[in-house]
């Protein structure tokens, strides 16, 4: 049987364009680009970038079918004496094999000449080691009407997009001037910054074109300004307050008239942006009114109250199965806990030897951490007799029995990494999985040195990152555009680190 000819690997070729590419004194409302073969447009909505952006957006055809022509219908009133660039990215592909005509550009000017200046650089994600595709680079001309809020309500003067796997960009056909450069992961594709959906990055200073400098910035997701939602009652003495933003400094005070013995506790939900509000005694009222404050935020909210079934105390172990020798055993409960009576707590090892222990309590998380001496290949039985735990409503636990075991050290590995060229302290060094989920971390002040020893590590491949903890709060902090605050810098170790069982890995990491 005939095998056919060789596979087509040649991209489409532009035969002509009407009006011609690089036209000046442009007045048309439709552009037709003709090819030597049938083509299709792939992911045109993201790939095709028109700069300056048009409002309403130009209409591009074909949308789904194959054609030998690409048509662009312009419905916006074009700016005078302005150079426009239509960058097709990799959207133009031949219909049969999908060979792309990479980064074809159609350029025209409504004036008598084509602007020819450009600016380039790269974008990365401030937190993740993987950067999203199609990050928009927006430049706003700094004139008498400019202010920092233009990113929320005005279209940029020029726009481009990252178009390759190394996240580089070029903005072409610009005119000389002073500009504000912003990078935006524009989820709504409306060329405007929506903090609830978009990531943003910005340069600390304005840029002047022409410039031969490469500009690099990092995109980040802002913490939203705090806002409380209307509370809901979910059981007899239990309300929930949803919110957006950071709830660390939130205070909830009841405004309604209460009894002298009124008390409350607030717990942070471990999975949702929700605060749990527990109170006593229950009051026979139609509603309760609260004042919610968070730094400068103040709001008054109301919720209806009805007689519902009261929750009963349920205690659960956060630590289950295997426990590392250097971590505590943790328990939590569905109702705020107020007391741990150690005389009702027994911890014995597999030889039935009682163990001494210490404990700490995280009130906001409602979690007890119990520390006791542990060795490898041991089984530990932890028993909480009735009365060991008391909750906010003076209920106590039934008998609770938990069993955990420590691993064989021969099944674990270690990582000793020396980090050099550290520019400031404290630094946080973290091991994570491929998804960026934290496994272990070590925090060093300057006096702790630059050698980080991770012990008792489960065999796997890990990512390692170094965080400059500028505000010394033991966590990574994002940035804020309007406040001009950049996110704390994170530097990833190149590649993955493989940790094997019964093996010490020694690495060097020089920071740039």
Structural commentary:
Keywords: Signal. Residues 8-110 form the SbsA Ig-like domain. By secondary structure, this protein is mainly beta. The protein folds into 5 domains: 14-109, Immunoglobulin-like; 117-219, Immunoglobulin-like (Sandwich), CATH 2.60.40; 227-304, Immunoglobulin-like, CATH 2.60.40; 315-407, Immunoglobulin-like (Sandwich); 411-510, Immunoglobulin-like (Sandwich), CATH 2.60.40. The protein is 2% helix and 45% strand. The protein contains 2 helices and 42 strands. The strands form 11 sheets. Strands 1, 2, 4, 5 and 7 form a 5-stranded antiparallel sheet that branches. Strands 10, 11, 13, 14 and 15 form a 5-stranded antiparallel sheet that branches. The chain is globular and about 90 Å long. The two termini are 60 Å apart. The model has no long low-confidence stretch (mean pLDDT 95).
Keywords:
mainly beta; Immunoglobulin-like; 5-stranded antiparallel beta sheet; globular; Ig-like domain-containing protein
Summarize this structure briefly.
This protein folds into five domains: 14-109, Immunoglobulin-like (Sandwich), CATH 2.60.40; 117-219, Sandwich (Immunoglobulin-like); 227-304, Immunoglobulin-like (Sandwich); 315-407, Immunoglobulin-like, CATH 2.60.40.1220; 411-510, Sandwich (Immunoglobulin-like). 2% of the residues lie in helices and 45% in strands. Strands 1, 2, 4, 5 and 7 form a five-stranded antiparallel β-sheet that branches.
């Amino acid at each position: 049987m005939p095998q056919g000819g060789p596979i087509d690997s040649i991209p489409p070729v532009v035969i002509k364009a009407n009006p011609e590419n690089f036209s000046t004194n442009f007045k048309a409302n439709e552009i037709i680009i003709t090819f030597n073969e049938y083509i299709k447009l792939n992911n045109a909505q993201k790939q095709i970038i028109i700069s300056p952006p048009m409002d309403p957006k130009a209409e591009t055809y074909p949308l789904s079918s194959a054609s030998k022509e690409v048509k662009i219908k312009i419905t916006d009133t074009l700016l005078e004496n302005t150079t426009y660039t239509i960058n097709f990215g990799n959207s133009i592909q031949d219909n049969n094999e999908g060979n792309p005509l990479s980064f074809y550009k159609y350029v025209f000017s409504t004036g008598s000449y084509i602007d020819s200046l450009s600016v380039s650089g790269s974008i990365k994600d401030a937190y993740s080691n993987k950067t999203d595709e199609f990050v928009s680079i927006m430049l706003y001309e700094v004139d008498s009407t400019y202010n920092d809020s233009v990113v929320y309500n005005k279209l940029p003067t020029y726009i481009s997009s990252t178009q390759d796997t190394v996240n580089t960009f070029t903005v072409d056909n610009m005119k000389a001037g002073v500009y504000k450069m912003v990078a935006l992961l524009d989820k709504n594709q409306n060329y405007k910054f929506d903090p609830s959906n978009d990531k943003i990055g910005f340069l600390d200073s304005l840029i002047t074109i022409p410039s031969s400098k490469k500009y690099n910035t990092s995109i980040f997701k802002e913490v939203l300004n705090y806002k409380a939602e209307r509370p809901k009652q979910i059981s007899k003495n239990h309300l929930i307050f949803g919110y957006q933003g950071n709830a660390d400094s939130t205070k909830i005070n009841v405004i309604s008239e209460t009894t002298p013995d009124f008390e409350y506790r607030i717990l942070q939900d471990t999975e949702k942006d929700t605060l749990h509000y527990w109170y006593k005694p229950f009051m026979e009222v139609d509603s309760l009114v609260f004042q919610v404050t968070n730094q400068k935020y103040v709001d008054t909210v109301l919720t209806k109250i009805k007689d519902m079934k009261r929750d009963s105390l349920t205690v659960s172990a956060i630590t289950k199965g295997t426990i590392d020798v250097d971590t505590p055993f943790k328990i939590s409960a569905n109702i705020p806990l107020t007391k741990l009576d150690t005389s009702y707590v027994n911890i014995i090892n597999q030889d039935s030897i009682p163990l001494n222990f210490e404990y700490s309590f995280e009130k906001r998380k409602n979690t007890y951490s119990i520390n006791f001496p542990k060795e490898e290949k041991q089984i530990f039985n932890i028993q909480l007799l009735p009365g060991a735990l008391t909750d906010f409503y003076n209920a106590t636990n039934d008998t609770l029995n938990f069993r955990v075991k420590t691993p064989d050290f021969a099944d674990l590995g270690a990582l000793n990494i020396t980090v050099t060229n550290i520019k400031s302290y404290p630094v946080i060094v973290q091991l994570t999985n491929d998804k960026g989920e934290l496994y272990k971390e070590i925090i060093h002040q300057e006096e702790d040195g630059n050698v980080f020893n991770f012990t008792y590590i489960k065999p796997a491949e890990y990512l390692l990152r170094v965080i400059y903890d500028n505000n010394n709060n033991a966590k990574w902090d994002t940035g804020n555009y309007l406040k001009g605050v950049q996110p704390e810098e994170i530097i990833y170790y190149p590649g993955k680190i493989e940790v094997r069982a019964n093996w010490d890995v020694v690495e060097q990491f020089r920071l740039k």
